[in-house]
Recover the amino acids of this structure.
């Protein structure tokens, strides 16, 4: 198989980046824009030793799971990898992927824990509260907002992403018409010229507050009054800012912000916790499913109000604050200082006083605190990035022995690896649930409850020893203890020694065996014993038979005989 070959292939799976996966001639081929069940004609684009990449040329037989993607530019955009797959099939695929990883990589027996049904969305479109649109010129020189056409600098216009909110389109239209009337140049990646690079939009699903942030290649935004007058016509417009990014980089946001109109942040809720979100803040993009995922984490944490909880990789403290209302104390650890500043602020605006946050690496902060302060935890929650947890962290968790560990994961493969590690160190996976945070993409979140293995139950019994009513006499205990003592293993050697000591003569093993056989005693497993005579031999004398019987009686062999 080589580049440019045309091949007929059946797609069987979906790869980690969303491409369809099929087999041809023993090679694995990744084919973008296909889904399991498709039979397709594909063209080989690149071959490696065992696998290759191919392009979809023609769908010979479309998969029965195919649907018409609602977004007309789904294929060029690539942001949604599986929009062409019916939503319930997406859910089944994700659920299976998680289960398979837990079994294959984690070595978990599916019967040994409860996998709850995947939590999907009723409305799997329009779920994102955040969108970032690059601004540029299209082939005809017209100012457009949209997305970069795969690996190029040209922008394909699309102001109506089906994962985003309808307000995006209205905002982008206003920004573009302001640019045209006020002669604001879009940024040109190829030469670093022009002003407006990106428009970042955030929408509070609960509060309906809107934030618009213009990312600019300059220190100030000209004609900003005209812009804010136009944008403020949109109901809910709460925060208009400019972000300065003068670097030639793919990173979207710079560090500095200028307030153009309104507040420097919007507010929104997850559950009943309020968050202040600035253009630079991290905030989960799907608030509906975040509520479901963290609600599950809260349920698994099993809090009664007395617990000390550690929330590791806590970000802006979404989980910490969620748990704080039901716990005695919550500690959060996160590597990004700005996120911790947000977490502390969010604790304050919600009047939460029992949450404390530390900046640092989870795998350094927790071991250090455990070593120097002997900190304790009843419940530990972990929500690491894709690469999962560092072993140093898992080792400390094992040492701290929390009753429950709740593991929230965005990559079920590293989750499974870490669960295996914990399982080998005294933790048991009790249950788990996959949550579809990102419909139309291949990503899936999973939450798992681990609990510390303890004896099934402990009974406390009070006993008084001595003489008298209700007391247990001590000599009875001694007697009973003696009867419980396992009998000593009686060996041929012991019998021989006994006989030699008592009668002054030696007996052959074969004679002992013969006597035992005559007495109908079991004959087995004596190492080195010759229980079957290799050749006919003289029988033991009566005296020796008598001595052997005596020895067997002494050792109680008739009752409990090993050989
Ligand atoms: N639960 C959080 C999000 C977790 S995402 C929330 O809802 O806000 C994973 C987080 O881990 C990110 O915020 C990332 O900055 C942080 N992180 C990455 N590596 C880390 C490490 N070694 N120690 C602590 N935090 C880390």
């Amino acid at each position: 198989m080589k580049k440019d070959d045309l091949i007929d292939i059946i797609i069987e799976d979906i790869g980690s980046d969303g491409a369809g996966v099929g087999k041809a001639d023993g090679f694995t081929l990744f084919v973008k824009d296909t889904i399991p069940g498709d039979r397709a004609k594909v063209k080989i684009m690149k071959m490696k030793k065992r696998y290759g990449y191919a392009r979809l040329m023609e769908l010979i037989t479309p998969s029965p799971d195919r649907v018409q993607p609602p977004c007309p530019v789904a294929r060029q955009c690539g942001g949604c990898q599986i929009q062409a797959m019916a939503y319930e099939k997406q859910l089944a695929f994700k659920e299976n992927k998680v289960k398979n990883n837990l079994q294959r990589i984690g070595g978990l027996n599916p019967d040994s824990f409860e996998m709850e049904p995947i939590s999907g969305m009723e409305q799997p479109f329009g779920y994102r509260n955040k969108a970032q649109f690059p601004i540029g010129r299209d082939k005809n020189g017209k100012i457009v907002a949209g997305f970069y056409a795969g690996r190029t600098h040209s922008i394909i216009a699309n102001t109506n992403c089906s994962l985003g909110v309808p307000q995006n389109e209205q905002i982008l239209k206003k920004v573009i018409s302001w640019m045209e009337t006020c002669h604001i140049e879009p940024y040109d990646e190829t030469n670093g010229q022009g002003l407006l690079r990106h428009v970042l939009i955030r929408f509070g699903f609960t509060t309906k507050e809107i934030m618009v942030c213009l990312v600019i290649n300059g220190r100030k935004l000209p004609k900003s009054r005209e812009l804010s007058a136009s944008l403020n016509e949109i109901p809910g417009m709460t925060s208009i800012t400019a972000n300065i990014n003068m670097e030639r980089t793919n990173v979207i946001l710079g560090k500095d912000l200028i307030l153009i109109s309104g507040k420097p942040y919007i507010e929104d809720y997850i559950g009943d916790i309020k968050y202040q979100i600035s253009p630079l803040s991290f905030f989960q993009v799907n608030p509906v499913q975040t509520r479901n995922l963290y609600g599950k984490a809260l349920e698994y944490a099993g809090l009664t109000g007395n617990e000390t909880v550690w929330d590791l990789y806590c970000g802006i403290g979404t989980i910490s604050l969620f748990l704080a209302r039901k716990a005695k104390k919550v500690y959060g650890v996160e590597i990004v200082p700005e996120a911790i500043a947000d977490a502390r602020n969010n604790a304050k605006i919600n009047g939460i006083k029992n949450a404390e946050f530390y900046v640092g690496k989870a795998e350094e902060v927790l071991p250090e605190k455990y070593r120097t302060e002997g900190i304790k935890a009843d419940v530990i929650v972990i929500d690491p990035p894709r690469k999962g947890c560092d072993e140093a962290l898992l080792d400390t968790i094992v040492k701290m022995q929390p009753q429950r560990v709740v593991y929230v994961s965005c990559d079920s493969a590293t989750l499974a690896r870490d669960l295996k590690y914990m399982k080998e160190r005294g933790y048991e996976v009790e249950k788990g649930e996959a949550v579809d945070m990102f419909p139309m993409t291949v990503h899936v979140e999973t939450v798992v409850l681990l609990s510390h293995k303890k004896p099934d139950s402990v009974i406390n019994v009070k006993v008084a020893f001595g003489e008298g009513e209700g007391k247990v006499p001590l000599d009875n205990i001694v007697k009973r203890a003696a009867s419980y003592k396992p009998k000593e293993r009686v060996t041929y050697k012991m019998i021989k020694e006994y006989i030699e000591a008592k009668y002054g003569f030696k007996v052959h093993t074969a004679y002992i065996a013969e006597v035992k056989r005559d007495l109908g005693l079991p004959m087995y497993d004596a190492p080195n014993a010759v229980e079957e005579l290799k050749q006919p031999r003289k029988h033991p004398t009566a005296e020796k038979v008598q001595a052997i019987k005596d020895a067997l009686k002494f050792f109680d062999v008739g009752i409990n005989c090993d050989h």
